[in-house]
Amino acid sequence: GTTWTQLGQATGKDGKDGDSIFQWVNQDESYWYFALANGDVIKIGRGIHGAKAVNAIPSFSDGSVIANKGKFTMSFDVLPAEAAEGLAEESNDIFNVKVVYTAPTKASNSICLPILSKEGKEGVLLLTVDGSNLDDSFVKGTSGASACLQIVWNDNVMSSGYFTLTYYDPYNGHEYVDLGLPSGLKWATCNVGATKPEDYGDYFAWGETEPKERYDWSTYRWCNGAYNKLTKYCTNSSYWDSTEPMDNKTVLDPEDDAAHVKWGGSWRMPTIDEWIELQSSCKLTWTIQNGVNGLLVTSVTNSNSIFFPATGYLFGTGYYRVLTHGYYWSSSLYAANSDDAFNLRFNSESVDTSFSFRYDGIPVRPVCE
Predict the structure, then answer these.
(1) For the chain, where do the domains classified as CATH 2.60.40 start and end?
(2) Residues near 16 by Cβ (< 8 Å), separated by ≥ 6?
(3) Strands of 176-178's sheet in order across
(4) Which of 1.25.40, 2.60.40, 1.10.3470, 3.90.930 would CATH assign to domain 50-167?
(5) pTM of the model
(6) Which of 118, 142, 149, 160 has the fewest Cβ atoms within 10 Å of its own Cβ atom?
């Protein structure tokens, strides 16, 4: 084969005073231009504002991005980061947000969404787009959709690649997911008091609507200081301690339901039967999401999912089993022992419906019709 010899410093002409192999070199936002001695010009793309790649930033752990029929914001990582601000200053004409439906809708299975505004900051390009033309089949969940951002300048195209859109239709200001359950029930994406799925949120005694410093019978609202001195929600006379007739109530009233009181509308705590439906209709996987242990619940009918962090529970003033176990209240009394109420609990090995003392501090995951 050929033998190469390193010569060290070049001994030819230094390129000064007209000795370059190029007649001239120039540039613009998109290209480098090199003019050869014979007059030919070599054009090399440089990326608009130096941008080399744009990648969608997902809204959920499955990589999907939130969409709605009003307007929604899509976020993209820009490489290199310093190019984001320059891209945002460009005309909307070079940006194309294309949506493709998984099944043809009406006359076509794709549309382009108009861009309403752009912002570039700290390596992220934010596009606010008009989603009003999204097909009703997508909104109703009968036709999925994916989107792609294309940036077109001169003869070059930079693409984010396709990413899944998830329809966003918050109820009373809180996001939910349709898991395709037989009942049609919708489950919230985070706990009461939380701002994202991985947050534990607030801890409530069963039938109370405010968190507190201590959780035991001495502070429990619906008793006179002991498990067998209940004043509401009781089906066993040996647990009753009121001059009023025993109420025999087995499901929380709306005014004692933390989900309903905190979120309003038709939000409420799930019954134990609704927890059982969730278990039987979904795939349950112990996982780590954004550094938090918990349970990923994935629909077997539409692949939508929600995450339940491993919250542990509160007794007295201390937390127990945080990171290893999840506990979530139902609105159902454990009628066999009226001092208990049903809940869902899980760890890395199992998911079960069980019951706990009503005074325990346990998080709440709301549902709505």
Answers:
(1) 50-167
(2) none
(3) 176-178, 186-188, 367-368
(4) 2.60.40
(5) 0.62
(6) 142
